[in-house]
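Thread: "does anyone have the structure for this chain?"

Original post by V.I.:
We have the sequence but no experimental structure in hand. Need at least a predicted one for the grant figures.
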Amino acid sequence: MAESLEKNASFLNGGNSHTQLVPELKSIEKFALPEIALATNEDVIVYLRYSHKIAEYAALAEHDALVLRICEEFGITIADEELQAAGDTFRLEHKLLGVSETLAWLQKQRISVEDWSKGIRLDLLTKKLKEYLFGDAVDSHYLSNRQDYQRVALSQILVSDITEAQKVTYAIRESNESFCALALEYSKGKQSKQNGGFVGIRFLSELMSEITQAIAQAKEGEVIGPIQTKLGYHILKIEKYFPTEFNESREQILESLFQNWLQANTTLASRSEQHQ
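Reply from O.Q.:
Generated one for you, tokens below.
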């Protein structure tokens, strides 16, 4: 014990203990990290398993397989000209203007030309399937639900305790404390905490029903809440409303109708199997 105190005192007083650290630091500086080997496909699968992400990506793979089967059932195909045009558009968007740039990008992604082509083809088939199923229904759906496709820029503080939620709300309304600063200090939501409360621009139809109802009559700059949902207690600030634009909403409407249709039919198929 006395020896330990003596060493600590020596360090604090600028004794020999400080100089003894220098060679150790120098040896660390000279240390060379071993070369990192490229992960194999098997390594990637192992990573997904122990990081608890494999279920998420398995669901995406199952979704894509289902799309391919449905397209086959409906006879939806992609012509070579469509595939070529989509590939050209992809290269322009990603600044792959020459063969060398494209090959370098493929190598970085660890995929082949065939893999890349299959991805573009799947994307085209998904878009065609949405149009095939709901293209004619988009206009009427939009007119009937126009309010749902209004966009709003939102900031949020999410807390788990009602007492804390009331404390934060009081600090904003009565003490004029910064919403941003309070979000950084109190918010349990990862995105809102990282961005000082701001969670982005959202369609009203994307929000939880409790939040949509609460902000329906709110004005820009107004603070709403606390609002209770299954996630906790939300204190919201309406940053800005944006007018509804059909061209901007069309893809989102198609996606919403398509996902609802998939979910309904998947649930129906699951129930049928259980009764067999």
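V.I.: this helps a lot. Residues 56 and 80 are 32 Å apart (CA to CA).
O.Q.: and DSSP finds 13 helices and four strands in the chain.
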